[in-house]
Amino acid sequence: MLYLIGLGLGDAKDITVKGLEVVRRCSRVYLEAYTSILTVGKEALEEFYGRKLILADREEVEQEADNILKDADISDVGFLVVGDPFGATTHSDLVLRATKLGIPYRVIHNASIMNAVGCCGLQLYKFGETVSIVFWTDTWRPESFFDKVKKNRQNGMHTLCLLDIKVKEQSLENLMKGRKIYEPPRYMSVNQAAQQLMEIVQNQRIRGEEPAITEETLCVGLARVGAEDQKIAAGTLQQMCTVDLGEPLHSLIITGESIHPLEMEMLSLFSIPKNSLESQSIDGLGT
Question: What pTM did the predictor assign?
Fold first, then answer.
């Protein structure tokens, strides 16, 4: 049996009892190590689970999945995923590969950012399509996701923005020369995401377009959701460019054009002190 086991969002203890029981009886256990991270490392997980884990990077999962599935038809193999197993499409591919090989699978779910984001007080059923914001480079500055933000806002829906993670990435030079030398891990912050969004807004104005959001649109920054030191900050997009939420992982929410009074009351608990939500104009709240 192949087991896909969600680890939740906090630390080693967020695994479910059912998931922990499976981990302890599997012949091999892989830890997926590129779509997200926990606040603790592999060693802390091994100590709590009482067994060794095999790190599985993007290359291992996407190109060498057969290694993970080897002997899973005659023994139990565990595949650990931060959050919920189906938070990334890569893991659906693993299930499809297993099925083609006649290997049965079972999923043990857990909390993910997709539902835990409700901790800020915005109502989950009012979220539209989720988008990803990637690190820009000198030659690649995609803006296409912004169309989804616009559509969500027009429909009165909030947009959850998942921020880029770069783990075990190679420079172009090392990639071309076939050198297995990797860049240091990078995790996009709310500040970086907000700054890129501000540039998109400015670019659209230069092109004579009406941007879906402005510097005064109400946004919510979240960091380390599910951990004891999680942080939430609500304020304008402009404020998100400078707010400090500390260590990764970060997420950003762009609110819809209409916000329920109960949502506003909850967001006021997390307003950025220098310019609290109560003192902002209606326009400043993005409503």
Answer: 0.88
